[in-house]
């Protein structure tokens, strides 16, 4: 499947709520594969939502495998038409985003979530996640609602230039 370019703010697809995928067909499976392929070639990327590759549909992938802040880890997975079932224990932490490449910010998010949706085969699946994986899931869910992490920071004092490591 092709690797797709990642769009950045102010692209309007990032600020519009995504439409439901609906039927899991060949096009939905191709989108799922493109999300994973694009995430995998992007250094440091642990999640990617369809709007970030210019597609206004409710789909995202996450993979926190090997991340030092991860506790739960379901490996690489894709959810189509995901729904947040439960979210608990909010905590502040720094986030970045491929669609906001020059900034990071402090965002309060739940540290334990339950999310359900369809996998690329059309089967309903449910994931319970905590810590960093929960944060990644919530970050991607925000993209599906037309939000980026900047919409969740407490103000300009909580936004920082992204550090570049060489």
How would you describe what is shown here?
- With about 170 residues, the protein is of the alpha+beta class.
- The chain has a single domain (about 10-160), classed as Peptide deformylase (Peptide Deformylase).
- Helices cover about 15% and strands about 35% of the residues.
- It is built from 2 helices and 6 strands, in the order αβββββαβ.
- It has helices spanning about 25-40, 130-145, and strands at about 45-50, 60, 75-95, 100-120, 125-130, 160.
- Strand 4 (about 100-120) and strand 5 form a beta hairpin.
CATH superfamily: Peptide deformylase
Which percent range fits the helix content?
10-25%
Number of domains: 1
Shape: globular
CATH domain class = Alpha Beta
Listing every helix as H and every strand as E from the N terminus to the C terminus, the arrangement reads HEEEEEHE
Instruction: Output the radius of gyration.
Output: 15 Å
Low-confidence stretches at least 5 residues in length (pLDDT < 50)?
none
The biggest beta sheet is recorded as:
6 strands, antiparallel
First and last CA, distance: 30 Å
Strand content: 25-35%
The total of helices stands at: 2
Residue-averaged pLDDT, rounded?
A: 96
- State the secondary-structure class: alpha+beta
**What is the CATH-assigned architecture?**
Alpha-Beta Complex
What is the number of E strands? 6
CATH topology name: Peptide Deformylase
């Amino acid at each position: 499947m092709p690797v797709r370019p990642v769009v950045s703010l102010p692209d309007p697809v990032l600020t519009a709520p995504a439409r439901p995928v609906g039927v899991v067909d060949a096009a939905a499976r191709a989108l799922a594969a493109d999300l994973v392929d694009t995430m995998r070639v992007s250094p440091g990327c642990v999640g990617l939502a369809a709007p970030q590759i210019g597609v206004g549909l409710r789909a995202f992938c996450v993979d926190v495998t090997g991340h030092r802040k991860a506790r739960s880890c379901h490996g690489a997975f894709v959810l189509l038409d995901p729904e947040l079932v439960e979210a608990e224990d909010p905590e502040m932490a720094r986030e970045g985003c491929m669609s906001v490449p020059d900034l990071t910010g402090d965002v309060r998010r739940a540290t334990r979530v339950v999310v359900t949706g369809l996998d690329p085969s059309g089967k309903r699946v449910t994931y319970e996640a905590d810590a960093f994986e929960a944060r990644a899931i919530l970050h991607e869910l925000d993209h599906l609602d037309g939000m980026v992490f900047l919409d969740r920071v407490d103000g300009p004092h909580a936004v920082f230039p992204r550090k570049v490591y060489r």
